[in-house]
Amino acid sequence: MQIGFNAPSGGPLATPESLTRLAQEGEALGFGYATVSDHVVIPTDIHARYPYTDSGEFPAGSRGERHEQLTQAMFLAAKTTTLRLVTSVMVVPHRPAMLAAKILSTIDVLSGGRLTLGIGAGWLAEEFEALQVPDFAARGKVTDEYVLAMRELWTSPTPRFAGEHVRFENVSFEPKPVQPGGPPIWVGGESGPALRRTARLGDAWYPIGTNPSFPLDSLARYRAGVARLRALVEREGRDPTSVGLAYRVQKYGPDLPATAEDGERRLFSGTPRQIADDLKALRDLGVQGVDLTFPGGTTEAVIASMRSFRDQVMEKL
């Protein structure tokens, strides 16, 4: 199991100096990957419901300045040697399929095959409108089609594709990604459509545990979600063991309520020993990656949180 950390896309910790320190210190501490989030613009008038708060309100702290996700991933790759980069998640309809495929392939080649493509269909309708991309209501179909088109470009010596939203032929697409088949695709989301997309197209399922509509915040709930996923994978004619598992943690530690709404222990609450036990239980289920957002208002404070987690939790695994 690899443990990852969030590399901020905006705010005072997103300077070149701070991001370089966080990435290099994280690599030196033994973290396996860094995650980078995706918003191209933040609309000033948001009515769409954010999936990860009880109120549906997009947190005020997330509405400020943002780096472009794929550019930031390339920057972090250039500052490190072994750290993997995970898009967490890339909103697939935000970028034309062929352009996205080329940028992602370039990152993979120049990083030596260290890119993992976390994907989502998106939730912020107003951002879709601002970017003038395919209609928000069609985002699921667009996402699936773009993923298939990107894989065609990454794998075929004579790529061609004829879909509703993307078409191409008579093109050369080189160089191919270093990783055979392209960067592994982790499908974000907790809903039925996200599970079905994972079953059809994903290399791994990559949910956040705290979606109020689809909570995965206890081991029992997560096990049930994995069971649903594996049944869907089998229905697609794929080997259920061929689809991996990853998990994103927004908060952890003693400030979290100890009990989830199903009456079970809340994952990643409590002491370092309890959190280590949660990681062991997820590892036993086959989870290959867990990433966290580490607290701290300064670069040094975040690094101190990462070091403490390494010493108190990761050393117990």
Description:
The protein has helices at about 15-30, 70-80, 95-110, 125-130, 140-155, 190-200, 220-235, 270-285, 300-310; strands at about 1-5, 35, 85, 90, 115-120, 160, 165-170, 185-190, 205, 245-250, 285-290. It is an alpha/beta fold and about 325 residues long. The protein starts with a strand and ends in a 5-residue tail after the last helix. The longest helix is centred in the middle third of the chain and has 17 residues, at about 140-155. Helix content is about 35%, strand content about 15%. The strands form 2 sheets. The protein has an 8-stranded parallel beta barrel, surrounded by 5 helices. Strands 6-7 form a two-stranded antiparallel sheet.
